[in-house]
Model the fold of this input.
Amino acid sequence: MTTTWNKIKNQIKSELPKNSFSLWIDPLTLLDEKDKTIVLGCANKFSRKWITENYLTLIRGQLHESGSGYTDLVLKVQAPKKHTLAVDPVFQPEQLVLPNVPTTRRPAKLCLNNDFIFDRFIVGRSNDFAYSASKALVRGDTWNYQTLLMLANTGLGKSHLSQAVGHAICKENPQSRVYYITAEDFANEMVSALKTNQIEEFKTRYRRSCDVLILEEIHFLSGKEKIQLELGYTLDALVNKHKKILFTSSLSPKDIPKMSKELSSRLTSGLVTTINKPDYDTRLKILARKASELDLIISEEISNFLADRLDRDIRKMESALKCLKAKSELMNVRIDLDLAKEVVRNLVSGDCRITMEDIKKLVSRYYQIAPDMLRTRSRKKIYAYPRNIYAYLCRQHTDESLEGIARTIDRSHSTVVYASEIIERRMKTDDKLMSQVRFLNKQLQGSEI
Done:
């Protein structure tokens, strides 16, 4: 019967769009055959319901035409694979928690996100190399590089992969001392250790009591000369002991302002991978997976619309699906294309009608500077601050490339990334800045203040 089912799938493949077949029909597996009925396995309830409503008649028709003698079929949800993860694998007691360091200055207990595992990562052309490199780092037996650096903009999956590495290593070897930390927390921890005369304990923790170091957001170290120096020594110690090291960053080290050449060299001494924006087919797969996890059914038309409009940030795809589900349930309305368009308008901030020129005029007027001064090479705060705001708003409200934004202020694309991330990070702690950005956002969207 397996041969017959494969023939039926091939016939269906010729009658359906490529994306529809790969998402819904191809994953079906033959589970059983009895009493002239075949049983096909679906990944989950969502898939079974969708296939029943949209493709069951087609499958049955091909089954009858096959002449196999089978007259009916049943769709059954397969039991999900169980993932056994090490409980609280990061910062266990044996990993030398620093004594006498104020908890307000030391990073909170960091745990790996249980959702960020390899099995839940959607692989496509934009990230397959980073995925393969991450898996190789875990295996170790085929790993010929001492470090792995993953470069990607926000929301493209670098944190997912880095934490998946941590999960996989802890699962294979629970005794491994895996340290997962952001560069910001690393810096804060070092400062606290210096202030409390615990720097030797800090060095011991990272240089001699660490088997795997996963350091996120290394672009945060820009301009922090002492932190960069200490990290360089730490990396040398770990490399000499053949430990595993993984970094993530939104910028290549050579493009990070005020990054020492010595540390930049160390960070790029191993394998460097890049995660780009997911292509259209990958976005469809991501939407299908996220919708399934939310137990949400959306039409192919809506899925195609979301994949077309939300092309830069995976988090926005997930947010769009959650908004659709919430509005449908709370307002008791049907999920249709109009509702999807309303959700997307909120996420992409006024669609593409907002131009960089609009943003330039607004920022210049608000901060009372001439528009041309956004291009000045001056580093004075009166010009640098509005310029950073401008870069941030352009990335939020337009589909322009980094190079396109950079040209308007006579800067490099890396400067645009760095400037916008400065604003994004400071908004978390600076209420005044948050208020200003919120005001400018509303002005661009045509909302009332």
Notes: DSSP finds 19 helices and eight strands in the chain. Residues 20 and 300 are 8 Å apart (CA to CA).
